[in-house]
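Model it.
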Amino acid sequence: MEHFRRPRRLRATAQVRDLVAETRLHRQQFILPMFVREGISHPVPIASMPGVVQHSTASAIEEVRALLDCGVSSVLLFGVTDHKDEDGSYACRSDFILQRTISELKDTFGDSVFVFSDLCLDEYTSHGHCGVLDAMGRVDNDRTLLRYQELAQSLASAGVDMVAPSGMMDHQVAAIREALDDMHATECGILAYSAKYASALYGPFREAVDVQIADGGDRRAYQQDYRNQREALHEVELDLAEGADMVMVKPASYYLDVLAKIRAFCPVPLTAYQVSGEYSMIISASQAGFIDRKQTIIESLTAIVRAGADNVLTYFAKEAAGWI
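Modeled.
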């Protein structure tokens, strides 16, 4: 019988575990989603997301200042307003809260902060859908793309670094890229919501952006079915072909299998969005004393990165940055 030398068993101290860890978190991986609301002068708490607020432009600047001090330099902005109409036209105004906040953040911090902006219509439409509706009350894909193009150009004019179209319209990446190229905004990138599922985990977000879908409707006609995986891979391929600079999986924790599959072939940076429901579940369970808050947050973020995400959109960005 061939003899072999058995390896010595190391004592698994914290130092040894850190030395051989396969997955590591770092602050620059985190992107903080932020809500900016018209007509407020101070932060307004979001009841279903304890610790998260709707910001004024002034408080958003102070939040980003604190974020930079923690080593996190990227934010994704969502606009909130009471001015809503059938086709979300108010969002395209140059003096809208979203555009004003983008401009002031870039004027204040320059390239020290990387600003993403949501590009969708649900926050600004009276019916709560992500696009313009036709006479039958269905989302009109092609008319919606025209509004997305207008909004993309408005955000680029404000100085945004990258737009993030979340509406899941067919060919939205190509339409937005064409609109940006037409105004020579070649440095404005596109983070495509390529694998965005019709999930139950968006509930707290709807409160955060003050969105209700008319007549109790849903978005299953244009968001992806959570029972499907191959569909997501196909959507990523389409967005890459249309010029996406980054792609996203949303939500994150329930879709790590999708994330890993996309990582296997995707040549561009891959983002995962740890959404409002994921955040609120961790907060609620930790407040009840059922789980350890810090350990659960770090474990959840590590799992997302381990599955293949290059960066993570997370409401825990500032908190987690202080621990790593």
